[in-house]
Specification:
With about 375 residues, the chain is an alpha+beta fold. It has 2 domains: about 140 residues, Creatinase/prolidase N-terminal domain (Creatine Amidinohydrolase, Chain A, domain 1); about 220 residues, Creatine Amidinohydrolase (Alpha-Beta Complex). Helix content is about 30%, strand content about 25%. Strand 16 and strand 17 form a beta hairpin. Helix 4 crosses helix 5, helix 7 packs across helix 8 and helix 9 runs antiparallel to helix 10. The structure holds zinc ion (3 copies).
Length: about 375
Amino acid sequence: MTVSTPVPFTADDYRARMERAARTAAEAGLAGLLVAPGPDLVWLTGYAPTATTERLTLLVLVPGRDPVLVVPALEAPDAAKATGAPALTLRDWTDGKDPYAATADLLRGPAGGREASFGISDNAWAMHLLALQKALPTTSYASLTEALPMLRAVKNPAELDLLAAAGAAADATFEEIRGVAFGGRRESDVAADLAGLLRRFGHSQVDFTIVASGPNGANPHHEVGDRRIERGDMVVLDFGGLKDGYGSDTSRTVHVGEPTDEERRVHNLVREAQEAGFAAVRPGVACQEVDRAARAVIADAGYGEYFIHRTGHGIGVTTHEPPYMIEGEEQPLVPGMCFSVEPGVYLPGRFGVRIEDIVTVTATGGRRLNDTTREMVIVD
Ligand code: ZN
Ligand code: ZN
Ligand code: ZN
């Protein structure tokens, strides 16, 4: 069952986003932005082509000019139905014509003949970028994520509502999954349960359903396998996807039957680290301080070498995006940012523990968008 509610954004919202993006690009010294199908295009226009193909689709944002969407003629009718379409000029092209020459015309001028640098979506196809470079040898290109990492980072109230609803659906999924049988079933069985529950609670897209039992839990990237879950296993659960266009991502670590003292101790440690990371969240604090706060708890307990990834990542129309909670990221937190706080401890060959909530920055601190218990849950 797919539950979908209308996206609460209007053409004016998309127009404002495109204007802000063009302005931000100019402030960053860019002549404009080239946006390929994917999360940036969805966020800027509401348009998601059903298939991304070798035919060029590209949003061209140049400060001071109207936004133009270059689109294959056969897809133009669909593009015209996008909520943001009234804020755009559609420039369609037919098979057999060279879309790059026409697009190059849109890029000419803003730098007055000097070399112009454009930000381009990270997921743009290399063949499109290479053809543009050939058509306009005086242009250079920068990764949009590197040039404007905070473009989508600060969420408005409608976006926060959607993220909170996605988080509540993920929480409802955890409340159900803790009641299913773990012992004796395969990781892949529990993963299928998770995917079914996420969809039942309104997700239209499931991005990941990690079920990492026993020694598999020591690999943060372990997704799911055929291992049969045994009594005595720790099981890391990490799941999420998109509900009404916005992401969820939460982790809890459960135990099958009674845990050992060490398992309790490590779980408690990760819980305290997660709490410390959350407590560090407030406006003006650098992203790296969230990482440091969580990491210090684990390092002080002697487990520093077993916390082998960053503490968090942003979330929005994708489940992983800037800002990153990582040493060296000095970007200050701003009210409306949303990101994960997900420290973990991974003991090779034995077990792992990770606890993850999505957190949003408020005027005075942080607010969790996941709120199931962070105590260790014992499952059957
Ligand atoms: Zn155990
Ligand atoms: Zn996760
Ligand atoms: Zn995450």
